[in-house]
Design a protein that fits this description.
single chain; 232 residues; alpha+beta; Glutaredoxin; Glutathione S-transferase Yfyf (Class Pi), Chain A, domain 2; 4-stranded mixed beta sheet
């Protein structure tokens, strides 16, 4: 059976990583049987030192987008069957908006503005000696990544503005549709749900979260996805 390796759930949501949530949600959406293994200890075994990754029929695959592409080719379960080329292009653009823009905004807010909360949640169970050293080392590396990517060069106000812009685009396009692309759930909904939940349903306060909560269709969308794929 396929094995999924990801972080432990916290904050009452399936996973604090949008990409881990994307992966698990996609598997639930396709009905693919899988087992879940959680814990930060799996980072050291991850092919690219990131979670999630999967093991399937003796093959180890990393990166949620690449894993999904591989699963589509292997098992032939394509949630996007019937979509037009234009719809596929729009879905891809939204996935990239979330993965390459809104993701960085969200995690910069967490690691730069709410470090005490992140430290307690993700490193609180470490032995005292390790807890004094390791979290700070990881945070310094993370902040360096933010600067190298570019998002870390901006002020909090500028970062919030970018996040609100991205959320506004998602909310405007979603409108009153049940799923992002219309009446049927598509691959892009796995990323959309994972990203939105990690913004508007976690105890990390920011103007971006407040704006997301002000757009009622985003919360309604999350409620629908949760009821459909995570009930019980």
């Amino acid at each position: 059976m396929l094995k999924l390796y990801q972080f432990d759930p916290v904050w009452g949501i399936p996973n604090p990583s949008p990409f881990c949530m994307r992966m698990e949600t996609y598997l639930r959406m396709t009905g693919q049987p899988f087992e879940v293994y959680t814990g930060v200890q799996y980072l050291s075994k991850a092919p690219k030192k990131k979670l999630p990754y999967i093991e399937d029929n003796g093959q180890t695959l990393a990166d949620s987008a690449l894993i999904i592409d591989s699963l589509k080719a292997t098992y032939g379960k394509n949630l996007d069957d019937g979509m037009t080329t234009e719809e596929c292009a729009i879905a891809t653009a939204f996935e990239q908006l979330m993965a390459e823009s809104l993701y960085w905004t969200t995690f910069c807010i967490r690691w730069r503005e709410h470090w005490p909360l992140v430290k307690d949640v993700f490193f609180g169970d470490l032995p005292p000696v390790i807890k004094q050293i390791l979290p700070g080392q990881i945070r310094r590396k993370t902040l360096k990544r933010f600067k190298e990517q570019g998002i870390g060069l901006h002020s909090p106000a500028e970062i919030h503005q970018m996040g609100i812009r991205d959320l506004g685009a998602i909310a405007d396009f979603l409108a009153d549709k049940p799923f992002l692309m219309g009446e049927h759930p598509r691959t892009v909904d796995a990323m959309t749900y994972g990203m939105l939940v990690n913004l508007i349903e976690v105890p990390v306060e920011s103007p971006v979260k407040a704006y997301g909560q002000s757009r009622g269709n985003l919360q309604a969308y999350c409620d629908r996805m949760k009821a459909r794929y995570y009930a019980g």
